[in-house]
Amino acid sequence: MDTLTRMRTFIAVVDEDGFSAAGRALGRSKALVSKYVSELEDELGVRLLNRTTRKLSLTEIGHSYFHEAQSIIHQVDMLQETVQDKSGKPRGLLRLSAPRSLADSPLMQTVMGFAESQPDVSLELVLEDRFVDLIQEAFDVAIRITSLEDSSLIARRLGSFRIVTCASPEVLSQYGEVKTPADLIDRPCLIDSNQKSRQSWTYVDQGKRLTIPVKGRVETNSPQAVRLAALASLGFARTLHMLVEEDLKQGRLVKVLDEFEAEDRGIFVVYANRRHLSSKIRAFVDYMSKNYQRNGD
Known about the structure:
The structure is a single chain. With 297 residues, the chain is an alpha/beta fold. It folds into 3 domains: 3-82, Winged helix-like DNA-binding domain superfamily/Winged helix DNA-binding domain (Arc Repressor Mutant, subunit A, Orthogonal Bundle), CATH 1.10.10.10; 90-161 and 267-291, Periplasmic binding protein-like II (D-Maltodextrin-Binding Protein, domain 2), CATH 3.40.190; 165-260, 3-Layer(aba) Sandwich (D-Maltodextrin-Binding Protein, domain 2), CATH 3.40.190.10. 38% of the residues lie in helices and 26% in strands. It contains 9 helices and 14 strands. The strands form 5 sheets. Strands 4-3-5-14-6 form a 5-stranded mixed sheet, covered by helices on one side. The longest helix has 25 residues, at 60-84. The chain is elongated.
């Protein structure tokens, strides 16, 4: 039995949270799965898993080995796909990382459009508000906002990302005109808990950053829910322009403090600098660039 098979089995046990579930996923018996993992531990000379009758957990070294093994298996699979993919037809699993705050956005509609257009590609979409390590965490591609700090990544700009502060006409009528960011301090604000500084909003005044403490009785982890709360006249919202664009056009919401907003930030699709790029990654990047070229969002 080769090491790669044992590694795949170990990864399946962790992913499926058990030997029985891993066996079902792999089409193998529980006993054989357990045997492979034990052989891997014997080969390495370390214990990777803590086993009890009710719970399975990674040891400290098992946790490190799991992430390294994921990366190795992913690279092996990518190499095999590149060699076998002579026709250039996209296929296989595409692992995509994207910010949670974009889950309800038109950009995700474009991602799903790609999945629909490529029936031979399976999509694993992981939404979380952190920059993942594409290589170490075995991601094929990521969607990122703002600056790109990792020069080893290849990036293609999809468009711009704009934040707006807005409220319904009823809220503006009730609480009065908002002329400066400080005017928000005593007004009800809708808190998006996805934001790192959810109790403060940052603006720019003549090149200087202003941090304004905000509070309100509605807090949610969904930008779409923030939009609905703003439409219900529950307070001032600070959210993605792309989510409220139509509401602003129709007058259901009104922008405030636009002159104090920071410059637009870019939305990029990024991938590792691989010499041989698989057709599924190339197809995804090309599809996103063609179908999501929006500016001023």
